[in-house]
Sequence to fold (386 residues):
Amino acid sequence: NLSRITETFSESVIREMTRICDEAGGYNLSQGFPDFESPKAIRDAAVRAIAEGLNQYPVTFGEPELRAAISRKVAHYNGITCDPKTDITVTCGATEAMIATLKALINPGDEIIIFEPFYENYGPDSILSGATPRYVTLYGPDWHYSPAELAAAFNEKTKAIIINTPNNPTGKVFSRTELEEIAALCVKWDTYAVADEIYEHILYDGAEHVSIGSLPGMAERTVTINSISKTYSVTGWRVGWAIAAPEITQRIRKVHDFFTVGAPTPFQHAAAEAMSFGPEYYEDLKSHYGEARDFILAALRQAGFSCELPRGAYYVLTDASSVMERLGLTDDTAFSRKLIELTGVATVPGSSFYVEKNKGSRQVRFCFCKKWDTLEAVAAALTTKL
Ligand code: GLN
Fold:
């Protein structure tokens, strides 16, 4: 007789695939985290913070140094003006920022709009916050949405729309025109935009990242979520944040406090230092991932997967139909397991990015934020063992 709500969603397939991969000693191209070291300067900063005794509770909603650094960085890179005293909540990763934001916004009966395929957390996030999700399809291979379908998803019950750009799992980077269109719908229907911008610095082929919170009229109705995880390759530190107008922030802070009290103190101090990196750091990150993308895409195509070049983030959602057919498989989960067995390469089954699981049953997602040795070994395994 345990909680019924927890029966309505399953454990994360992404995290499960990491465990399966670890047991098999495989190459983890499933969960999105790098297998190379994070920058030494910020590891040193974390060690220093611990040695200097920054080991007790942080200010619940974020150490002042970090909130000041976030505010400076978003003013420079995102065109977002925010007051660190009233507009920022530091959370345990973007993961907590998202659920705390939805908890702060949602009343029973409210709807939220989610583009599909979606990062799998958004499903359980909506269930746990009590929101009813409405899905708007992103159509491959270029992952466009239909403006008419988007407009039709809004109604008087719509409380929020989640926009993840650059997008996981598709690699779509929402254009300024698309974001203006979404913003106009948010204003029309008095809806909040919740922007998950965790891949903002991972862009290819000159793609531009636009923060919807920087568009006219959107500051007061946007919650901008981000984290140090992907930008500085420290996914285990669990430091993220939500930026929002004071009346929303007050509510996010309350939820955050009772859920977690705070994000780890020493890592908040190290995060503040990371934010002072100059533009060359972000340029290097982009160029490494750009080369990794081109290399892995070529190997995937050679192995029989069909896929388009992602424009941002570090995933590629492939159509695996022809490889599956060759192996006599019709189900993405069975295929993912077979792939580990045959090649040692772990992926995420496509169905975990869809509410109607059959829509992803011919797809698998590969993550390419890996060092060259790993990428080369993966390419060799995929092109010779399948
Ligand atoms: N965003 C990462 C992915 O999609 C995983 C993040 C996580 O597991 N918290 O793989």
Remarks:
- The mean pLDDT is 97.
- The pocket of glutamine is lined by residues 14-15, 31-32, 95, 119, 168 (CB under 6 Å).
- DSSP finds 13 helices and twelve strands in the chain.
